[in-house]
Write a structure and sequence with these properties.
Its EC number is 2.10.1.1. The chain is an alpha/beta fold. The site of adenosine monophosphate (AMP) has 16 residues, from loops.
Length: 405
């Protein structure tokens, strides 16, 4: 049987998902973590107007000399407007309040001596300030119409603050795709249940939901179905009514009662663009792709480690691209302990970083079995071993895939 190369299936998934990318206009308050699809420009200059950096007195610098009393003609607070400053006078001013027209410096209250604070007071200063002292000039941060956030930016709290400050209420972002998860298996029980004979705890749905959510998706539904006839189809019909993508696990190999493959590999049942088969990859050999009601369905195998590996290697970056996120950067590493690898398939071994300056060193964690989920939890990377390589020695540099933290 000829096995599909990993890169080919990876591209097929990317191509299947590409058309679902869409742009939304969204309130800045709801945009944390989303990626801008367009450049955002400042609605206003920042600062919006000349304002005081200190609590103190706004003056004309030239009017100030050591010990000379100036009448205090007004008190300007944040949120109020200021009258122009007559020559030879001072305005009491608070931080963030507008600097009166005519004033060109602010003297901090700590460097002032106000006599009879309030109506009819005067103030003296120790020294003449320099022009511009403690005045935050309008537009000194950004001019109105200037770019405040570039297109393609993952919005961090600092971006949201800057956008709001510049009067930007809504931004254009790549929409998070709505993902539905359906896991299959009549042996599956929730972790809260007590197991009956033959049952195991269901684990793929929680792992997949976390993976999808951490790579730009919004998980809108999670379903666990048995392998009986019709169950999967019913849930798939439901999921494809609202989701942009469906991820399934299990039921894709060559045995009997493979509900995912039985329904979706058979084009007469209604699936389109269907491909089911084996990849030249381990773990994660059996895989499938299709559309159901036009919605992309990515069918991963059932073994828990296969699910992790196939998501990271095949699905992760395609999903990220839909959400406008960049692909996760790959690295290279050296495997410190001698390791053998069977020929003919690309192996993705679980590994753990073990230090190293420059090229990271990695030790292999556990064996190749795709059921070893507890062992896989101790890993933080995947090590890719080419199909042609049967023996890894510490002098070889091989690709490293960071596991989703
Ligand atoms: P399958 O691909 O459906 O034949 O499943 C392969 C192996 O993975 C079997 O041992 C299943 O019991 C196990 N498995 C399938 N789905 C899950 C799941 N959601 N959680 C935990 N184990 C699973
Ligand atoms: Mg199964």
């Amino acid at each position: 049987m000829s096995r599909r190369p990993v890169v080919e299936h990876r591209s097929a998934i990317a191509a299947l998902l590409r058309p679902i990318a869409a742009v939304d206009q969204i309130d800045v308050g709801d945009a944390y973590g989303l990626v801008t699809a367009r450049t955002a420009t400042a609605t206003t200059a920042l600062p919006v107007f000349d304002n005081s950096q200190m609590d103190g007195f706004a003056v004309r610098a030239a009017d100030v000399a050591e010990g000379v009393a100036l009448p205090v003609v007004q008190r300007v607070f944040a949120g109020s407007a200021a009258d122009p400053l007559p020559r030879g006078t001072a305005s009491a001013i608070m931080t963030g309040a507008p600097v009166p027209q005519g004033a060109d410096a602010v003297i901090p209250v700590e460097e002032s001596h106000e006599v009879a604070a309030g109506e009819g007071s005067t103030v003296t200063f120790d020294a003449r300030p320099s022009v511009g002292a403690f005045v935050r000039r309008a537009g000194s941060d950004i001019a109105a119409g200037e770019v405040i956030v570039e297109s393609g930016t993952t919005l961090a709290p600092r971006h949201l603050g800057a956008l709001a400050a510049a009067g930007v209420a809504a931004v254009s972002v790549w929409r998070r795709p709505d993902v539905a998860i359906i896991v299959t298996g009549s042996e599956l029980a929730p972790p809260s249940a007590s197991l009956r004979p033959g049952q195991i705890y269901e684990s793929n749905s929680v792992a997949l939901a976390a993976l999808a959510a951490s790579h730009g998706a919004k998980v809108v539904s999670v379903a666990v179905v048995g392998d009986g006839p019709g169950e999967f189809r019913e849930r798939l019909d439901e999921a494809t009514r609202s989701a942009d993508v469906v991820l399934t696990s299990g039921g894709v190999s060559a045995g009997e009662r493979e509900p995912v493959r039985d329904l979706l590999a058979d084009s007469s049942a209604g699936a389109t663009e269907s491909w089911f088969g084996a990849l030249a990859m381990q773990p994660g050999g059996p895989q499938g792709l299709s559309r159901w009601q036009g919605v992309p369905v990515i069918s991963l195998p059932g073994n828990p480690v296969s699910v992790l590996v196939s998501f990271e290697v095949l699905v992760r970056d395609a999903l990220r691209a839909v959400a406008g996120l960049p692909a996760v950067a790959g690295e290279r590493c050296r495997v410190v302990s001698p390791t053998t690898s069977p020929p003919g398939k690309t192996q993705f071994l679980r590994g753990r970083r073990a230090g190293g300056d420059g090229v990271p060193r990695v030790e292999i964690v556990g064996g190749p079995g795709s059921h070893l989920i507890a062992t896989a939890a101790r890993a933080d990377v995947l090590v890719e071993v080419d199909a042609a390589v049967t023996e890894l020695t510490p002098d070889m540099e091989v690709p490293l895939w960071p596991l989703t933290p």
